[in-house]
Design goal:
Elements (H helix, E strand, L loop, with lengths): L9 H16 L5 E3 L8 H6 L4 H25 L4 E5 L8 E2 L2 H9 L3 E5 L9 H11 L5 E5 L4 E2 L11 E2 L1 E3 H7 L6 H9 L4 E5 L5 H6 L6 E4 L1
Parallel strand pairs: 1-4, 2-3, 2-4, 5-9, 8-10
Antiparallel strand pairs: 6-7, 9-10
Helix pairs in contact: 1-3, 5-7, 6-7
Length: 220
């Protein structure tokens, strides 16, 4: 949503697509999971009286809108991209298929996973961890608006402690809210390393993928 506060800011989409293009040129296989909070959040709707399951499905639809926007931006840059959805919306995207996703990745197609896991009560954090494990990703990157993992919200507390590296066990023990508990547990049990970094700093995505130690690394 950029600085708009709501919806899809096209300039932000184009900027992110440009960062992805830089990685694509290097031959990196890229799979992306998008959230939908810039459009709708199921939990927020629940607080306003919306049925939680209905709200979560609405949130899943929001991720599809974001996925299509990113796909379009990538294709405008000459990069082939495929949107796969956990819910069947076959007129605009393919249903999720692990086998097809792996085939696309080998061919250099950027795969965008939408609709989370397709189930209410599960976040896109969990979807990201699940899809990463299913496609045997080398690492899961969480692009966020802060520089990494802190012991408390750095936007609210100036004395927040930054962790350049931390174990999954400590994340769970300290309840650091890096990702939801299901996602963290999935990563921990499947030995999937996680990198948390600030996506808003230009060039950070490429630096992270090339192995530069920016942000926080979470692993065993």
């Amino acid at each position: 949503m950029g600085n708009e506060g709501y919806g899809i800011d096209q300039d932000s989409v184009i900027e992110v697509a440009g960062q992805i293009k830089d990685l694509h040129k290097l031959g990196v296989e890229l799979a992306i999971v998008l959230g939908g909070g810039n459009i709708y959040r199921g939990k927020k709707g629940e607080k306003a009286g919306m049925d939680r399951v209905t709200g979560d499905y609405m949130g899943m639809m929001a991720t599809v809108m974001n996925a299509l926007a990113l796909q379009n931006a990538l294709e405008n840059l000459g990069i082939e991209a495929s949107v796969q959805t956990a819910l069947k919306i076959e007129k605009i995207a393919e249903p999720y298929s692990r086998k097809k996703a792996l085939t696309y990745l080998k061919k250099g197609v950027v795969v965008i996973f939408a609709c989370g896991t397709g189930n209410p009560y599960f976040t896109t954090d969990t979807a990201a961890a699940l899809r990463a494990i299913e496609i045997k990703a080398d690492i899961l990157f969480k692009a966020t608006k802060v520089d990494g993992v802190y012991d408390k919200d750095p936007e609210l507390y100036k004395n927040a402690k930054f962790y350049p590296e931390i174990s999954y066990a400590d994340v769970l023990k300290k309840d650091l809210q890096v990702m939801d508990l299901t996602a963290i547990t999935l990563c921990k049990e499947n030995h999937l390393p996680l990198a948390v970094f600030n996506m808003r700093k230009k060039g950070n995505l490429k630096k992270a993928v090339l192995g530069e130690h920016i942000g926080t690394i979470v692993r065993r």
